[in-house]
Amino acid sequence: MTKHDAARRAFLVRAAVGAGAVAGAGILTEASAHTQTEHTEAKASAPAQPHSSGDEHGAFFNYDNAATIAAFTERLMPGAPGKPGARDAGVLNYIDLALAGAYADLQDFYRRGLAQLDAYCRKTFDQPFVRLAAERQDAVITALDEGTATGFTWPTAQEFFNTVRTHTMEGMFADPIYGGNKDFAGWRLVGFPGAQAIFTPTDLQSTQAFTRAPVIGLQAQAKGPTRRA
User: Fold this and answer.
1) pLDDT value of residue 66
2) Which residues, other chains included, contact 142 with Cβ-Cβ below 8 Å and sequence gap of 6+?
3) Where are the beta strands (DSSP E) in 79-209?
4) Distances (CA, A) of 123 to 48, 117, 120, 159
5) Domain residue ranges of the chain, discontinuous segments joined by +
6) Please, are residues 179 and 51 in contact by the beta-carbon 8 Å criterion?
């Protein structure tokens, strides 16, 4: 992992922990097209959706858009040996399901944003984003973040970047019931224990990362044994 990758990972982890992201359905960071409060409330009231894992898609994204989002989010949260990234945590699956459900109002935002991203990459490097080397993908992401990428009208380059980054963080650290945080990868990364049956007094007073298994999320609870009448 390069120093650039490590710095990006560290930033997202710090932002997630600072926002208390691991405890709820989503994280409260800046949202570009709409307020994150509205999205969180919509997601909280929406029925739970079944989810798949890894790089699967199909609830909203077509193959090309799914490949672009998978590559984009992996550059935002790159994986490394022993350190899960966006692909490991199923971030693509989270965003795909969210856009088919609670975030359906952002479908056109993503369609237009991805089309503008593709046009910018082809104009600048003569290739779509997914075919660029990691260094060039990083250069494109930096241009979006700084608002210097050309050809963006709505969403603007910065709006698109901020929204995808926010949703990447949600997919890493929200409860797995929403389709991301596969195998509690994000929670384990930041030492969040999930719902534990018993916390000891020592656990409650400790300031160290919680590492004891099992880590239990909403989905695991939903799959618990059925009570007999």
Assistant:
1) 96
2) none
3) none
4) 40, 10, 5, 20
5) 3-192
6) yes
Closest by CA position to 185, among listed 71, 67, 93, 61: 93
Inter-residue contact 18 to 31 (CB < 8 Å): no
Four-CA torsion 169, 174, 176, 182, nearest 10 degrees: 30
- pTM reported for the whole predicted model: 0.74
Calpha distance 147→143 (Å, rounded):
6
User: pLDDT tens digit string along 78-118?
Assistant: 988 888 999 999 999 999 999 999 999 999 999 999 999 99
In this prediction, the residues of the chain whose per-residue pLDDT falls under 50 are 21-55, 226-229
> Is residue 136 packed enough to be buried (19+ CB in 10 Å), middle (13-18) or exposed (0-12)?
middle
In the chain, how long is the greatest CA-to-CA distance? 65
Find the helix packing angle between 3-18 and 157-173, rounded to 10°. 70
